[in-house]
């Protein structure tokens, strides 16, 4: 079975940023994404109540070049203002042409 090497970019952010993040990644060239609610706790603790909103996990299968562009955008426009986590993984994908 033939696979294609891509990057899995995972972004965890406040739900309030969902629309803006999706618009940015699509504008930069992402052809699709997966979005789900995310729960957890970090060095700043967890959320105290649901009225504060929830976190989202936005995942994209993309080329290394596009991953670089999106990470640059996150660093420039988000990291100093919002609590966002972003990490990149190497993945092997079937039907890779769907994503690049």
Task: Walk me through this protein's architecture.
This protein is an alpha+beta fold and 100 residues long. 25% of the residues lie in helices and 33% in strands. The chain is built from 2 helices and 4 strands; from the N terminus they run E-H-E-E-H-E. It has helices at residues 18-28, 64-77, and strands spanning 4-14, 34-38, 55-62, 85-93. The protein has a 4-stranded antiparallel sheet. The longest helix is centred in the C-terminal third of the chain and has 14 residues, at 64-77. The two termini are 19 Å apart. The model has no long low-confidence stretch (mean pLDDT 91).
CA-atom Rg in angstroms: 14 Å
Order of neighbouring strands in the sheet with most strands: 2-3-1-4
Give a count of the beta strands, DSSP E runs of length 2 or more: 4
Report the end-to-end length measured between terminal Cα atoms.
19 Å
């Amino acid at each position: 079975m033939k696979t294609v090497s891509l990057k899995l970019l995972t972004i965890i952010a406040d739900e309030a940023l969902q629309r803006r993040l999706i618009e940015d990644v699509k504008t930069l060239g992402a052809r699709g994404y997966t979005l789900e609610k995310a729960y957890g706790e970090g060095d700043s603790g967890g959320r105290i109540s649901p009225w504060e909103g929830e976190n989202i996990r936005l995942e994209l299968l993309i080329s290394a070049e596009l991953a670089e562009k999106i990470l640059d955008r996150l660093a420039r426009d988000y990291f100093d203002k919002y609590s966002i986590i972003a990490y990149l993984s190497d993945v092997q994908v079937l039907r890779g042409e769907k994503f690049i």
